[in-house]
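Might you be able to review the protein record set out just below?
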Amino acid sequence: MDDPTAPAVTPLQLHGRTVLVCGARFAGASAARVLLSRGARVLLTDDARPAGVDELVAAGAEFLGAVDVVPDGVSLVVTSPGFRPSSPVLVHAAQTQIEVLGEVEFAWRLRGPNAATWLAITGTNGKTTTVRMLESILRAAGLRALAVGNVGVSIIDAVTSDQHLDVLAVELSSYQLHWSSTLRPAAAAVLNLAPDHLDWHITMDEYSEAKAKIWNTPIAIGNADDPLVSRLLDAKLLRRPATRGVTVTLAEPALGQLGVRGGVLVDRAFTDGPGSGIGGGSGSGIDLIAADEIRPVGAHNVANALAAAALARAYGVTSEAVAEGLRSFVPDPHRNQLVGTRGGVRYVDDSKATNPHAAAASLAAYERVVWIAGGQLKDAPVDELVAEFAPRLRAVVLLGADRAVIAAALLRHAPDVPVFTVASTDDGAMIEVVRAATAAAKAGDTVLLAPAAASYDMFTGYPARGAAFVAAVLDEGRLDPGSGSAAAPVSAS
């Protein structure tokens, strides 16, 4: 889908400029390589000296270590998400009116003629699953598509690659969107909003406004079931009357929406055939796929599938390709993944539930839960989460840095639920956790790792935490025959 109102692509002029790259790890290293290849003088700053810096220095970059001010001669700063806006060097750049680009804005300005179309996704939770779903749909339609951003290939590497692509499915974080100014995807979706990353953005309003920057687009897609998203989209559409708003809902869709009717995902916003992707919807709508075919399970993943479908339909993808792509989609690990069953107890790994909002979506998918939770809450509140799901809890096993915060919330809102605390932080901690959970579980229960917190207090990331859980479950003994099939979700209706 071409956007006739999009500005012409003007590649960023870099030859001969001195550019400061803040952060010398993943995004920063990609930026530095491109800058060097285009004739820029590259200065690197980072608190540490990450692996790979020597290679960049050998290619011509200069490593400065940590700096608090922008060096003389610098005319552009490219920053990584690890540098907050309050970082002294970025504050100094603002004071001296030196432009700062985040990695996504930098990638957007690097695009050349015949650049791939961008379909963009953000939200507090579900971004990676949705962008992978979208990639699968686009490929089912025969398009050369790639998921990029915080998933798969670096977005900088994708836009500078010799590989010709039709469309990019782009996952964007609030960190990346904060620094965006000219980014204009062909269509963009905000999945949900909940308090997160407030140690970076400071306030919820700042966090929400960063997310809303993704809607600098002809077609803005939002989740009608999320009050924060709905209000944000309404405000954006008032300021941008040329933008068309499309919403998704788990309820029966109205005209202009995608939703669920009779257990089937239905599109009432776009049409098949000539002009598809830009029409105004059609009558009773077009059936896409049965909701019980969506994987991973859970109402939140049906909402993710609707958002992916809306983006694909905005691009002109047929309803048949949407269904084929969603059916063939294979979820990434640690996202509501059934490890197996033993003695009638299911073990589910949702280590990716790194905040209370994500944990709520996971807990909603199961009737009776032995909940494994804890880690770094990043100041996110948990009382509402505990109060809402207290009736489903058989028991709770806590670990990690902020386990006492969750324990206190449980005492306030679920005083009758047994709580087991594992204080150990060594490699065997997850074994203790799983043993405690197994002892508390009864046939028909689900032992659910949905920590509601980040993992860096004990693990190298959520994948390592999930892998430790899976290993501990397998260590407990043989799983029942047939284990590994998709877990049955609680009805979302």
User: Anything to note?
Assistant: The longest strand covers residues 117-122. The two ends are 34 Å apart (CA to CA).
